[in-house]
Write a structure and sequence with these properties.
It is built from nine helices and eleven strands. By secondary structure, the protein is of the alpha/beta class. The longest helix has 22 residues.
Length: 285
Amino acid sequence: MEHWLAYFMDGNEQVRDVARAAEQLGFTGIALVDHVAMPKDFQSVHPSGERQVEPDAVFSDPFITAATMAGVTSTLRFMTYIYLLGLRDPFSVAKQVTTLAMQTGYRFSLGVGAGWNAEEFALLGQDFATRGRRMDEMIGVMRGLWAEGTSSFHGEFFDFSRVCQYPMPERRIPIWVGGTSPAALRRAARNDGWLGMMETSENARWALAAIARERAILADRTGAEAPFQKIVVPASDTQHRELEDLGFTGFIAWCWNSLDPRSAPLQAKLDAMDRYAARHIRRPN
């Protein structure tokens, strides 16, 4: 099983120390969150149904953070959980992700989601209502640039001929998709993996079944079954075995509460990581 450390809303000062410790403790990688700018009086609600973040929450740039952490480690991997793809343009993201993947020895996977904060989309000049369809096209644009270097695309939101972007990545850059709506699960099935939230076992079982049905249709069309990651945030510290039995390939470990002042010192984070590693990474077979 893969164990990814959640580094959410924790600022810039401790990133190197946390990355070094995560690698030494045996974590697979680090999951990094993303927001660009949060309107002060936003009313949108997180898909969990709770107000998970406040507008003054600390969100460091995940690509730069991954590059910094990669610079002080050699095997640790990185993902975005999740990158709000629809807030950007596909050309800039494709260039940044290619650069990050290549310069880190392909230790980076792009986790994307449609997003939930309508006010943030409005602030950045993007239509919240069409974010899903736009994101699908963006993935197509990026895949074309990564696979061909010189690419054309003709869609609802992007329409261009013979655009060049080099260098091309030398291997496939994984795109993992978050979300539990039917559209999000179909999108995940068409790509390289699914990123779940704090799912109950019942919801996780339902989501995996929906993805499996979609993947089976794709396999019938292509004649091949591609590798597929299924990574989730456990809802409790006792759920790991059950989720593993359901077929998940990895967990995102939320070792501390970033909003709790007691977690602010570096040593508190290191102690929490060590407790998780002892329970779940170094556990007896």
